[in-house]
Amino acid sequence: MQVTDWIDLSGKTAHVTGAGQGIGAAIARALAAAGAEVAVSDIDATAAAEVAKGLGGVGMALDVSDREAVDAALAATVRQLGGLDILVNNAGVYQNLGGPVRDITDAMWRKLWSVNVDGVFYCCRAAARFMIEAGRGGRIINIGSTQAVTPGVGVTYDGSKAAVAQITKALALELAPHRINVNTLAPGPTWVNDGEPPLIDGHPPPPTGDPLADSVANRIARLPAGHWGDPMEQGKAAVFLASAMSDFVTGAYLPVDGGWLTL
Ligand SMILES: NC(=O)c1ccc[n+]([C@@H]2O[C@H](COP(=O)([O-])OP(=O)(O)OC[C@H]3O[C@@H](n4cnc5c(N)ncnc54)[C@H](O)[C@@H]3O)[C@@H](O)[C@H]2O)c1
C-alpha cells in the first residue's frame, strides 16, 4: 500500500456544478487528474463543454436553482458515467447581490438563495437518492465560504454560506449509515478573475465607513499567507475530501483560506 493509492480516484465518477470556470473548473480538473470520470455542469453550457473537453469528461448545461433540471442532470451523469460517487456543489453567486441590508431587494435575496441554498439542497437530495440506491457509499462536498464565519459580503451571501455549513452537518449525520461523507470546503480569497491578483502588503486600508467592505479589505490586506489563493488550492482539498484520505471525515468545515480565519 502506498499513500498515492489513497488519493487514486480511478473507477470513481464525479459531478461538479458551476464548473465552467473559477474554483469549480479547478476542482473538476483536480478530480480528473486523480483518475475520476467527471461530469462538468454550468448554467453556461459552452463553458461547461469547454472544461469537460479539456479533461476528457462530459459537459452539460445545468441551472442548479431548477429542481427538475437538477434531477435530470444527475440522472444523466449516472447514465453516462455509470454512477455517481462524488458530488461537488460548487455553483454559487455573489456578484451584485450583497451590500447593505437596506438596499437588498426581495429579488436579490431570492436570486442568491435560489442558487446558493436551494441549489445545494436540490443537488444533495438527488445525489443522496442515487447513492443510497447504489449502496456503494459516496462523497458530497459543499463549497461554503469563510464568509459563513466572518461576514463581509452581506447578509444574503454570508447567511447563505452559513446555511450551507449547517445543511452539510445535518446531512453528514443522516447519511453516515449509508457511508456517504458530507463535508464543507470553505475557500478563502481565491483569485478567479483575469490578470494577476493585487499584491497583499500587510497594511489595512483606512476605514471607509462601510463595515462590510472594511471587514473584507482588512482581512485581505493582512492575510497570513501573504497572497491570494489559486483555484487549484481548492482542487487539491477537494481531492482529499473525495478520496480514501478522508474516509473518517464527515460533517467537517474545512477552511482552505491562507489563514483568513486566524485573523
Ligand atoms: N473566489 C472566492 O474568493 C470564493 C471565496 C469563498 C467561496 N467561494 C465560493 O466558491 C464557489 C465558486 O466561486 P468562484 O469564485 O469560482 O465563482 P465564479 O463566478 O468564477 O464561477 C461560478 C460559476 O458558477 C456558474 N453559475 C452561476 N450561477 C449558476 C447556476 N444557477 N447554476 C449553475 N451554475 C451557475 C457560473 O456560470 C460560473 O461558471 C461559489 O460557491 C463561491 O461562493 C468563492
Return the domain count: 1
Query: What is the distance, rounded to the nearest whole angstrom, between the alpha carbons of the first and last residues?
Result: 39 Å
Nearest-integer average pLDDT: 97
Based on Cα principal axes, name the global outline.
globular
**What's the level 1 CATH class?**
Alpha Beta
Number of helices: 8
Order of helices and strands: HEHEHEHEHEHEHHE
Helix content: 40-55%
Give the low-confidence spans.
Answer: none
The CATH architecture category equals 3-Layer(aba) Sandwich
Identify the bound ligands: nicotinamide-adenine-dinucleotide
**Pairing-aware structural class of the strands and helices?**
alpha/beta
Total strand count, please? 7
CATH superfamily: NAD(P)-binding Rossmann-like Domain
Largest sheet: 7 strands, parallel
CATH-defined fold name? Rossmann fold
Q: What's the Cα radius of gyration?
A: 18 Å
Name the strands of the widest sheet in spatial order.
3-2-1-4-5-6-7
* Beta-strand content bin: 5-15%
Account of the protein in words:
This protein has 8 helices and 7 strands. The chain is of the alpha/beta class and 263 residues long. The protein has a single domain, classed as Rossmann fold, CATH 3.40.50. A 7-stranded parallel β-sheet has the order 3-2-1-4-5-6-7, sandwiched between helices. Helix 2 (22-33) packs across helix 8 and helix 4 (67-81) runs parallel beside helix 5 (106-134). The longest helix is centred in the middle third of the chain and has 29 residues, at 106-134. The protein is globular, with a radius of gyration of 18 Å. The N and C termini lie far apart (39 Å). Nicotinamide-adenine-dinucleotide binds next to helix 2.
